[in-house]
Amino acid sequence: MTTRIPPDAFEQYVALGDDRSYERLAEELGVTKRSICRRAAKDNWQSKLAAMERAARDDSEARMQESISSMRERHLRTMKAIQGKALEALRAYPLTSAMDAVRALDMSIKQERLIRGEPTERQTVSIEETIRREYDRWMTTSEDESEVAEEP
Asked: Where are the alpha helices (DSSP H) in 9-44?
């Protein structure tokens, strides 16, 4: 085996991809694994590799965010166009024959809210509604029990 490691050994190591190992690189270069380990420690290959992977991950995440952002913008433009057409139809037709426009407007508003991360339906329950529902439940239960007690 030769003991000469080429200057681009680190690049070759990175190019090995998921099957990367010092042993595999040593075999490809015709040198000992120990020589590769010494060069890797001296040139700090692991830190360099970690930095490269971090930069690639950051770049990938930035591209994904940009892609998601452009998708949301495209969807919002589409929803606004549908809303515009629906409003035009509502103005042009009598209310009795404009239900398709009403449905399109409702759907586009819900989609726009969803894209913007807003709720599409009201999910809150008022305290008054809760008390009334509980009162009805308890009163119905009490009346049913008293009827059962009176029957025998």
From this structure: 9-15, 22-29, 33-43
